[in-house]
Structures are given as structure tokens and as C-alpha cells.
Design brief:
The protein is of the alpha+beta class and 454 residues long. Helix content is 23%, strand content 22%. The protein contains ten helices and 18 strands. The protein has helices spanning 67-74, 129-138, 197-205, 211-218, 224-240, 294-305, 319-332, 344-348, 372-375, 438-453; strands at 39-41, 45-48, 55-64, 81-86, 89-94, 97-102, 115-117, 122-126, 146-147, 167-170, 173-176, 251-256, 261-274, 279-288, 310-315, 388-392, 425-426, 434-435. A hairpin with a 2-residue loop joins β4 (81-86) and β5. α5 packs across α7. It is globular, with a radius of gyration of 25 Å. InterPro entries: Znf_MYND. Pfam families: zf-MYND.
Length: 454
């Protein structure tokens, strides 16, 4: 909310890539390609809430082109089945053929119904159950509606929780899907002792939580992503001593509150400034305390854990499993080495490799590589063969999916986004949508009428 520290970032004017080819295979949560056996998926459209600020629903169609499916679906009344493969992908199956339907954001797949147009030969994925009922009653064609609402972080057993930090790609070309790439060597190192650093760095890393997450924290509700954000905030605080600690602690161990067990240690070599996103990043290394590695380091590990440079952070319900999913994404984003022929990711077609305690979620391809910064600290050198480089950044809520610091009373006109003349008035039918004038209400009535009546 500090207007003196707002950065306006230019957005590319280039058109979005063709939805059909380039983006399809890369949106899979695993290492396979998408199935397209039924037909062509059309572009996904987003419907916003009454304030035109949050994404409320997504809609897309699959045009049926396969001859066998055309016959069974259009003439014989075959019913498609639908299931969720990943946070953003639903799979339609009809007459032995399958189609992967890709959305741009995570969706709750368990809350779905299908709108089937047997005469027009398409299947439509949409959001509102109420609209679905009106379509069935008013259409001569046999129709239904798919309900796939936007997924909130970790609130449902499917959607975002299936894989919140996907690693995508084909073959050895892997990428973190929703965490941007970093070239750590290109980023300037931040000196936490510089004047006025604490005044803005503490506020910056403390602004990760959405309004929902802040409410859950006050009510002591469990949410794994909220816990992860709190832990990342604690890591920055410990590594920089920005809250008045005696000294920076650059070795961070995660201790599972439920089992009182620690199986992950981070070495933070530098705090860098992320020029692309105007944020901070912990440049460091992750050490998994697995059954294979522990015998090799046990003789000197005790001195590290009990040393003055080490801070232990407790992690809570579901958080350790979330970290096992997040660590591979933080590693892939700064990778300078190549995945080899014996990569465990490629062999198992699975990232992360596991969510279990005392088991490494990472492949072994990056272990012991790019460790120059680690070797600069005498007490850390002996761990070099067992660590993997990692870039840890704050995880901010997405403003068009969750409310962030927004005044609930600061409504705007749904058409012109004005504040009102002299004030906004709510629609008399649903009392949800607000307009500044009758002119704007009349302009919007064609779009709003089906929702209002429903």
C-alpha cells in the first residue's frame, strides 16, 4: 500500500501463443503428453465476480471430431466420463477415446457436471449450476453443464492440492510451471546490514498472505500453504536478522511438529534481489537427511545442528508434505546442470519422487553440482557432495484468484469501474452486482440477466 514503492512492469504486446499446440504438452503435471482423441478444445474464457476483480469461473468447449465418438455420442447417446489428472487438467472419456481438457488455473474437478450438445457435437465445461438448470429446461437439445470452479489453495482434496508446484515438460527439458526461472549468478547480492533494509524487507516478505489466509491464521485454522508461507517468512527473518536478532542464521532446519523429526536442512549462502519480480530470493542449498546420506555425515552433523549459525523452524500439519512438493520447483527454477540418462524423474515419470519423511523428493542429477558458494564457508564444505542448489522466494497470493488487502467496501461499477454518481446502487434482483447509473445497468443487462434470474 506504499505508493512510493510501486513498480509498473511492462507487459508484452505480443499475442498469446496458439492454445492448441505450444501450451498443451507443457501443462501436464507429469512427463507425458496430452491426449487429444476426441476433437479440438476451444479457448478458455474466464468469468469475473461482480466486482470484475476475481476469477469466478472458467468455460471451454471440446468440439467432437472423431468419427466413432460422433456416432456414439450424437446418435447413440453415449455419456462421457470426466476425472481430474492434475490441478489444471480434466480428462474426458467417451467410447474408448480420451481428451485432456486444459484450464489456465487449478480447478476443483470433483465438482463437475457436463453440458452435452449432441446435435452441435460439442461438450462444454462451465461453472454455474443455476445456468445449467435453465439450459436444460429451455433447450430442445440434450444438454448438461460442467461445473469446474476455481480451486483455492489446499482447501479441497483435489484441485490445487493434487500438485501445487508442478514440474512440467518433455524428456529432459523440465520447468517449474508456476514459479519463474532465475539465473542466480546474474542477481545482485543484498546486504541485510545496509541502512533501511529492514524497514521494507520485513514488510515485503510479510505480505505473502491473502485475506483468507490471514483470517485462518487468526482463527488458528490449518492450511498447508499458509504454513509454508510463514516458514519462508521465518527463513528470511533468520537469514537476515531484520527483526533485531543477535545475528543472521544461515543454516535452517525444518522440524516436523508431529513427529519431532528433522529431515531437511537449508544452507543460505546469499540473499539476492530478484530483478524480474522485484522481490528477494534466498540463494542456497538443500540437504536431505535420508537413510543413505545420514551415515556419511553423522560424525559432523551434530556440530552443525547445535551451532550458533543454525535456526530450527517447526513445520505443522501437512506442511512437510507441501515442502516436498515445493523443493523440486525451487531447484528446477535455478538449475544450471542437465538431467542425465539415469534421472529418477524420467525413470519414474514423477516429480517429486516422494512425500515421505527421510526420503529425498529430488532426483540425484544436481547433487554436489554448482556448489561454489557452499565451499566458501569452511563449516559447510564437507556437505558439498550431498546438497543441491535451490532458490527460495516468497510465495505471494494471486490477486485475481484471492483477495489481497482489498477494502470490501470499496466497490466499483461493474461496467465502467467508476465509484458512483453519487453512489453505487445494487441490482434489485440479486443485490450482488453494482452500477453507478441506469445507463451502465442497461448496457450490462444482456450479460447479467441469466445470472440475475438464476
Amino acid at each position: 500500500m506504499d505508493e512510493e514503492h510501486v513498480f509498473v512492469v511492462p507487459e508484452s504486446s505480443l499475442p498469446c501463443p496458439d492454445f492448441e499446440e505450444p501450451s498443451g504438452p507443457l501443462l501436464r503435471s507429469g512427463l507425458d503428453t496430452l491426449l487429444r482423441e476426441i476433437g479440438t478444445q476451444e479457448l478458455v474464457s474466464a468469468e469475473l465476480d461482480e466486482q470484475c476483480e476475481l476469477v469466478q469461473s472458467l468455460t471451454t468447449k471440446v468440439r467432437i471430431e472423431d468419427p466413432r465418438v460422433k456416432n456414439d455420442f450424437g446418435c447413440n447417446g453415449a455419456m462421457p466420463q470426466i476425472s481430474q489428472l492434475s490441478p489444471c487438467i480434466m480428462r474426458l472419456s467417451v467410447s474408448g477415446r480420451s481428451q485432456d481438457v486444459v484450464f489456465l488455473f487449478p480447478v476443483v474437478g470433483s465438482q463437475n457436471k457436463l453440458r452435452l450438445a449432441r446435435k452441435s457435437l460439442y461438450i462444454e465445461v462451465r461453472r454455474r449450476i443455476s445456468v445449467f438448470r435453465r439450459l436444460v429446461e429451455g433447450s430442445s437439445a440434450m444438454t448438461a453443464q460442467v461445473v469446474v470452479p476455481i480451486s483455492g489453495p489446499f482447501l479441497k482434496p483435489d484441485g490445487m492440492k493434487l500438485n501445487p508446484f508442478p514440474i512440467v515438460g518433455t524428456g529432459k527439458t523440465l520447468h517449474s510451471w508456476n514459479i519463474h526461472r532465475l539465473s542466480l549468478a546474474q542477481l545482485p547480492v543484498l546486504d541485510p546490514r545496509a541502512p533501511n533494509i529492514a524497514s521494507w524487507l520485513n514488510a515485503h516478505v510479510g505480505s505473502m498472505l491473502s485475506t483468507r489466509e490471514r483470517s485462518m491464521r487468526k482463527k488458528h485454522r490449518a492450511d498447508a500453504l499458509m504454513f509454508v508461507k510463514d516458514t519462508i517468512h521465518a527463513m528470511f527473518v533468520r537469514a537476515t536478522a531484520i527483526q533485531g536478532g543477535p545475528s543472521a542464521r544461515r543454516v535452517i532446519s525444518l522440524r516436523d511438529e508431529q513427529t519431532n523429526n528433522c529431515d531437511t536442512i537449508f544452507f543460505i549462502s546469499d540473499i539476492r534481489y530478484d530483478l524480474q519480480a522485484h522481490t528477494m530470493v534466498c540463494d542456497g542449498y538443500v540437504l536431505p537427511l535420508t537413510h543413505d546420506i545420514m551415515p556419511k555425515i553423522t560424525s559432523f552433523l551434530g556440530g552443525l545442528v547445535l551451532g550458533n549459525d543454525t535456526a530450527t523452524i517447526s513445520v505443522f500439519e501437512g506442511e512437510m508434505q507441501a515442502w516436498k512438493q515445493l523443493i523440486p520447483a525451487f531447484v528446477e527454477r535455478c538449475r544450471t546442470w542437465e538431467h542425465g540418462e539415469n534421472c529418477e524423474y524420467l525413470a519414474r515419470k514423477q516429480v517429486p519422487l516422494t512425500l515421505e519423511m527421510e526420503v529425498d523428493p529430488l532426483c540425484s542429477c544436481g547433487r554436489g553440482k554448482d556448489v561454489d558458494s557452499l565451499l566458501k564457508v569452511d563449516e559447510w564444505k564437507r556437505y558439498a557432495p550431498y546438497v543441491t542448489r535451490i532458490a527460495i522466494s516468497p510465495l505471494f497470493a494471486v490477486s485475481y484468484l484471492e483477495t489481497i488487502g482489498r477494502d470490501p467496501e470499496a466497490h466499483k461499477c461493474s461496467v465502467c469501474r467508476g465509484r458512483g454518481k453519487p453512489k453505487l446502487k445494487a441490482c434489485s434482483g440479486c443485490a450482488k452486482v453494482r452500477y453507478c447509473s441506469q445507463v451502465c445497468q442497461k448496457k450490462d443487462w444482456h450479460r447479467h440477466k441469466p445470472q440475475c434470474k438464476a
